[in-house]
Amino acid sequence: MKNILLSFLIFSGYSVCAQELFTWSEPASNMAAKGIGIRLNNTLMKENNSGKYNYHLLPEVMLGLSANLMIHVEGFLSNADDKFTAEGAAIYAKYRIFSEDEVHNHFRIALYTRAAINNSDLHQPAIELSGHNSGYEAGMVLTKLVNKIAYSAGGSLVHATNNSRDKKYFVNDGLRNAFAWNVSFGKLMLPKEYTSYGQTNVNLMMEVLGQTNFGNGRSYVDIAPTIQFIILSKMRLDAGYRFAMVKDLGRSATNGFLLRLEYNIFNAFK
After folding, report:
1. Cβ contacts of residue 66 below 8 Å, gap of 6+?
2. Which of 5, 29, 59, 242 is the most exposed place for a label (fewest CB within 10 A)?
3. Taking a C-beta distance cutoff of 8 angstroms, is the pair 198, 9 a contact?
4. What is the pLDDT along the chain (270 residues), one digit of tens a residue?
């Protein structure tokens, strides 16, 4: 029975597929059905003009409603206005439409959507629905796991609406729409061999994230390396740094750190 459980974890479970639990983007794989996840995303982003670091706290609750459907609810708080305030919230849903599973190998495709509301000041043409802009997004992501290496790629259409409290989208209506994309790679570094589902996983990630605004044709491209620890198959710690390679599409902050803390509760509801 122990060997059966261990094999299941290695080929299907949370701890083994850890190298496809990307940090800056979501893979096509879902969290466990009937599970609840709690995240605390902490970012320190360096302002390009002032050089100061702004702290953003993004608490998040994730629900695995079924094997194919999961929902995230996220809040946004920051000290960008020199005081720590709540700025908005978002809801994210992902539905897996295709899954092909083999030993040491699987391929998955999912559709996702996000809607966000925000009351912070608008000061950049780049659209960011996780903490800056109100708006909505719809996209697709494909993820492939081969042995200990995961590959993922996704693209989405993003639309920015006016932020609340009459804080209008500051450039013009022609810059409200964009195409966002990501390409991600992850490798399981430790353990070299599985002997227990209680082993700590160490994963290294590299993600490339970009956006092109349809109105002006300008783009940004970021690189984001991350180290990730999965503890007891249910706790997660990610530490990463994101920096800009292409800066044509204006943003107030391009470089910064992320620290993610996550805890998962399996079989939390019927």
Report:
1. 33
2. 5
3. no
4. 333 333 333 333 344 445 678 999 999 999 989 999 999 999 999 888 877 888 999 999 999 999 999 999 999 999 877 788 999 999 999 999 999 988 878 999 999 999 999 988 887 899 999 988 999 999 999 999 998 999 999 999 999 998 886 666 655 778 899 999 999 999 999 998 878 878 999 999 999 999 999 999 999 999 999 999 999 989 999 999 999 999 999 998 999 999 999 999 999 987
Query: How many residues are there in the chain?
Result: 270
β-strand partners of 243: 223
Question: How many Cβ atoms are within 10 Å of 114's Cβ, its own excluded?
Answer: 21
How many angstroms from the chain centroid is the CA of residue 236? 14
Residue 49, helix vs strand vs coil? coil
Residue type, 82: D
From CA 229, how far away is CA 237, in angstroms rounded?
A: 5
Compute CA distances 232 → 4, 12, 29, 148, whole Å.
18, 15, 20, 18
The amino acid sitting at 5 is: L
Spatial CA neighbour of 140 closest among 101, 91, 186, 182 = 182
Q: Which residue in 171, 167, 161, 165 sits closest to 135, CA to CA? A: 161
Task: Tell whether omega for the bond before 225 is within 30 degrees of 0, i.e. cis.
Answer: no
